[in-house]
Amino acid sequence: MANTRSSGLVPPTEEVHITALIDTSGSMCDLKHALEEGIGVFCQTQNEDANKENRTDTTHFTLVFFNTNSSIVYQGLLKDLDIKSIVVTPHGMTRLYDTVTDSALDLIRKKTKSTRDVSLPKKCMLVIMTDGHNTSGTPTPDKMKETIVEARRHGVICTFIAANQDAQDVGDDFGFGRDGSLTFSPDPRTTVNALRAASSGASRALSQGHAPTYTPLERQSSQACSPPHKRRQDGIPDDFIGFINPADLDSDYTDTFGPGNVGFGRKRTKLTRS
């Protein structure tokens, strides 16, 4: 067999189907612009990968927004998507289980459907991002989990990205696996970072043909981190106290809820003396 790298031949083109399900329920209102930016980052990176791998004409993208209902925002070749046309309008509840089930079944059909060119490798990926739990449609996750497990058995790459929960634990329960699940904090910066991490994970998974994984840095950047507490000599943070008796505090500090109050997790401010 000829060595395609040494002979300069272009490797066979792949057929890729990526479906992204984005939660646009009312609780995502503060993340509207971050979602639009993050989706743009995801699509741009995937388009660059498709161009490098000579598959721009065979990389398909489906974007689904789900709230009380679900709707297909875009379906077609990824290269033809106008990223600037993506507008997120958060409202309603969260139809998570039914949306994931329907999209996973669709990718199973795409993955197993016969094509004229049987030599054309076919890869499918499902990306889910949500900030909460199912509040609309089917009330239990049983069918969704069954479908995700079946999709993965057929080689569909699946990743679960979620906020306000331990996404690795919940994703594992749903059939995605811990490695393929990512927790993000629901603020603009980390939301964009999570979608950037999702794209990097997708690139690795599609390139190497295995389940998605996330690096420690990608996991860290997807979650809000409090700055390190500055500590006094007594070891107590300047900006945080647990259960502390006011009598144990020196006169340079006061509880923000008023002198003499016992607080838990209350911010303490240093008194300035004239």
Keywords, separated by commas or semicolons:
274 residues; alpha/beta; Rossmann fold; 2 domains; six-stranded mixed sheet; two-stranded antiparallel sheet; 7 helices; 32% helix; globular; disordered N terminus; disordered C terminus
Q: What is Rg?
A: 24 Å
> Outline, from the CA principal axes?
globular
The tally of domains stands at: 2
Distance between the termini: 85 Å
Low-confidence stretches: 1-9, 226-274
The proportion of strand residues reads: 15-25%
CATH topology of the largest domain, anyone? Rossmann fold
Derived from helix and strand composition plus strand pairing, the structural class reads alpha/beta
Number of helices: 7
The CATH superfamily of the largest domain is: von Willebrand factor, type A domain
Outline the biggest β-sheet: 6 strands, mixed
Mean pLDDT: 82
CATH top level of the largest domain? Alpha Beta
Give the SSE order as H and E letters. HEHEEHEHEHEHHEE
- The largest sheet has its strands arranged as 3-2-1-4-5-6
> What is the number of beta strands?
8
Second-tier CATH architecture of the largest domain: 3-Layer(aba) Sandwich
Helicity, as a percent range: 25-40%
Give the helices and strands, then pairings:
Elements: H1 4-7, E1 15-23, H2 32-52, E2 59-66, E3 70-77, H3 96-112, E4 122-130, H4 142-153, E5 157-162, H5 167-174, E6 181-183, H6 188-208, H7 216-221, E7 253-255, E8 268-270
Parallel strand pairs: 1-2, 1-4, 4-5, 5-6
Antiparallel strand pairs: 2-3, 7-8
Helix pairs in contact: 2-6, 3-4
